[in-house]
Amino acid sequence: MAFTNWRGLVGCVHPTLRPGSTEEVVKLLPEGVGVLSLYNDIKRGDKTEFEAVMKGYEKHIALLAEQKCDIIHPSGAPPFMVQGLAKEADLVKKWEDMFQVPIFTSGQNQITALKALGAKSIIGVTYFPGDINDVFSQYFTDAGFNVKCMVGMDVPFNRAQELPGEQVYAFIKKLYRQFGGADAIYMLGSGWRTLHIIHMLEQDLEIPVLHPQTARVWEMQRRLLIREKKQGYGVLLETMPPLPTH
Prior knowledge:
Strand order of the largest sheet: 5-4-6-7
Largest sheet: 4 strands, parallel
Strand content: 15-25%
Number of strands: 7
């Protein structure tokens, strides 16, 4: 095993060629965990494109399995959420049986993390416009959560990474007031660069913030039997709660 992978090797399949996500995962993971990333090329960010990309995910998962990754994370919540909770679970089981490696999607990871935080109700914010937010809301409703809202910010899909964190902060606080609070704030999508507002939101609203990057890093650690806490990025990484047993 290469020296840089002495605590485990994680394979990631990203939905787009958008930079930033891999860099943030590497930044948050402990020393000794290797990351091997492959990419799909989603451009429009619409339901038709999400439904068509599964073959690309399977091809990349096969390649990562050949590299003996300890776990594989096909990231990108929307492509799997549009499949629905049951179909997503069937896909993951098929791939685990086929490639003999543990696999978890972004949606599965976020459900697991919300349960670990003890959240039953969520206020959701995305950077997707229109009716697709209803699909995301239904996904979490089917998983047993009370979704008080799932609201998209008005930004082109290929420019989500340009949203200032301060603007996202203000948008979330407005939703929090409008919907009377919740057990947790849920941020859908790895496109925005908002790690720096997690601690501030948790401090000001006094509830956990479920951010896709911190959620995946938490589960990667737990699946690799690592428990290295990290300060400044929210309660999930600061406390490293155990994976729920159900």
